[in-house]
Amino acid sequence: MQCPQCHQQVDDGEGFCWNCGARLQQEQPMADATRVAGMTTPPPAAAVPPAPSAPGAAETSVLPPAPAPVYGAQEPAYDPSMYEETVAGPIVGTSSVVPPAVPIGDATAPTGAAVPPPAMPPMTPPNGDGGGKKPKSNRGLIITLIVLVVIMLAAIGFWIWQSAHANDTAEPQDSSSQQQTADDTSSDDADDSDDKSDADAKDKKDDKDKKKDAKCTATPDVDVDDLTANGDSLVATLSLTAKSCETGSYAEPNIEITVKNDDGDVIAAAVYDFSKRPITFEDGEASTQIAFNSRQHWQPADEISSPTNAKVIWQTNQKGEGKASGDVSGALGGASIDTSDNERYAQLALKRQLNDDASQTSQFYSDYTTQLSSKKYNMNINGKAWKYTDIYEQFLKLHYKHPNAILIWAADYYNYTKHGHAADYYVILSGETFSRADDATAWCSANGYAAEDCVAVDLE
Ligand SMILES: [Zn+2]
After folding, report:
1. 88 vs 459: CA distance, rounded Å
2. Which residues, in sequence order, are CB contacts of 195 under 8 Å at separation 6+?
3. 172-205, pLDDT tens digit by residue?
4. What distance in angstroms lies between residue 365's CA and the mean position of ligand 1's atoms?
5. Which of 23, 52, 127, 380 is the most exposed place for a label (fewest CB within 10 A)?
6. Span from the CA of 14 to the centroid of ligand 1 (angstroms)
7. How far is the CA of 434 from the centre of ligand 1 (A)?
8. Rounded to the nearest whole angstrom, what is the distance from the C-alpha of residue 394 to the centroid of ligand 1?
9. Acidic residues bias: where (predicted)?
10. Burial 294-325 (b: 16+ CB within 10 A, else e)
């Protein structure tokens, strides 16, 4: 007979296709008459790719032996130059400007500079001598001058301190009026710092007015706030910082956004067009949501251990493949990345998924579960060759439908290899646990799977 999935010739009486792991229908190893009432109604349309209606001729035997996945062969390679390191905006740094030396030449000492000097030089006025002495007029004048100089230095110290904190405090100009005289009489370059704060304040105001609709093109610094599933999509909530954007809108097209989990694996990537829906910055900060469809992300949302530790790579001038995916509940959809890159991430994800899920298979040595799919790389079903992206997508969709669903490599399990076959294909199990095969079979029909798509299995 022929396998309904891959059309391979198989021996009569086999339970599974040796080539692709599909269930062979004529054999009913688990079936018996003890079905639960109500489970005998014909199941609705299958959610898994349907079996081909018209088995083709001998074309199937030319399927090349698909290579077992090359695990870990390639690491995603990024051109580091593509990654634009975010550069601090021009506003940063003014608060730490230290003013140049202040000329003290003919500056008149401010009369009311009684403020405690934080940067007071370790000089104390020699005025500790009671006052009983009658100083010579010369000496008196010198002491007076020294006192004046000290007071002036104190005022300058305070003024430096004040300038340094001008941007941090709400009222940068209040106390500087005390030094108005000194400021006015000193040369222009002494006022750099004050001028700068003045200019900053003015710039800020101007920017707010003129940049409200201004385009911002700076590459933002991005943090991940959340990664959650929405249907079959992964929705990322991002916090963006771009100080130079101030209050403007980011509307760049062709932005490739790549997400890595905290193990450094690429788990999502797509290309977005923000000209369709610009990101609005407010004081250099913004928040946005983007969606990765089921072919653009490679880890189920519920298995991403610490979403806020995920890293985002933001690349400009990237080209997407085909049309952008639709938005998902307000999260911007994107176009897929280059097909070969996409395939590589899917292949690596399949490898990781097999590793992650291997620990969960032991329970099915004693209990039953249900097999929802088996797919061999590059196998042809109804004219479509199944690639890694297709296989991982099917796993994701089934996992979102059945949160316990796991992926296994058939060759690792005796029940697929016991007849001497290579069993080089992926199998998706529902992960549901049944003590009896009947219950497993009943679960298949209760969940709407056709008999050829869903079958009770116990691993060996
Ligand atoms: Zn087959």
Report:
1. 57
2. none
3. 333 333 444 334 444 444 444 445 555 555 555 5
4. 24
5. 127
6. 11
7. 26
8. 17
9. 185-195
10. bbbbbbbbeebeebeebebbbbeebebeeebb
| Ligand 1 centroid distance, CA of 343 (Å) | 23
Under DSSP, the state recorded for 98 is P
CA of 60 to the centre of ligand 1 (A): 10
Does residue 191 contact residue 204 with C-beta atoms inside 8 Å? no
Cα 359 to ligand 1 centroid, rounded to whole Å: 27
SS3 string, 342-353, reads HHHHHHHHHHHH
How far, in Å, is the centroid of ligand 1 from the Cα of 451?
15
Determine the distance separating the centroid of ligand 1 and the alpha carbon of 374, expressed in angstroms: 9
* 208 CA to centre of ligand 1 in angstroms: 65
Cα(45)–Cα(68) distance, integer angstroms: 32
Ligand 1 centroid – CA 376 distance (Å): 9
Q: Give the ranges where 96-229 is alpha helix by DSSP (H).
A: 137-164, 180-185, 192-210
Q: How far is the CA of 286 from the centre of ligand 1 (A)?
A: 51
Q: Where are the alpha helices (DSSP H) in 304-377?
A: 339-358, 363-366
DSSP secondary structure letters along 369-434: EEEEEEE-TT-EETTEE--HHHHHHHHHHHHHHSTT-EEEEGGGSHHHHTTS----SEEEE----B
Tell me, in angstroms, the distance from the centre of ligand 1 to residue 90's CA: 63
C-alpha 155: how far from its chain's center?
51
- pLDDT number for residue 12: 84
